[in-house]
């Protein structure tokens, strides 16, 4: 599982929590043991997301399924499909 796959998984979980009415904030890997902080009705919990890969099949192919990634000099452009 690549770092990009891990980040995508965390953001997909945060998006699903938001879809269910839960405020969810993903962290960028600098908070030990916490990937997402979720809050609803005065209560907050920390969430740790695990990504999976089986054989040569990844959970999501980011570039094929969701994004167009373009390197432009020192910057990377991310375009949603």
UniProtKB/TrEMBL annotation:
InterPro entries: Restrct_endonuc-II-like, tRNA_endonuc-like_dom_sf. GO terms for molecular function: nucleic acid binding. This is Uncharacterized protein. It comes from marine metagenome.
């Amino acid at each position: 599982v690549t770092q990009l796959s891990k980040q995508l998984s965390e953001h997909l979980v945060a998006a699903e929590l938001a879809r269910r009415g839960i405020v969810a904030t993903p962290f960028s890997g600098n908070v030990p043991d916490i990937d997402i902080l979720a809050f609803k009705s005065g209560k907050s919990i920390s969430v740790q997301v695990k990504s999976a890969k089986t054989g040569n099949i990844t959970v999501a192919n980011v570039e094929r399924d969701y994004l167009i990634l373009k390197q432009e000099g020192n910057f990377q452009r991310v375009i949603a499909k």
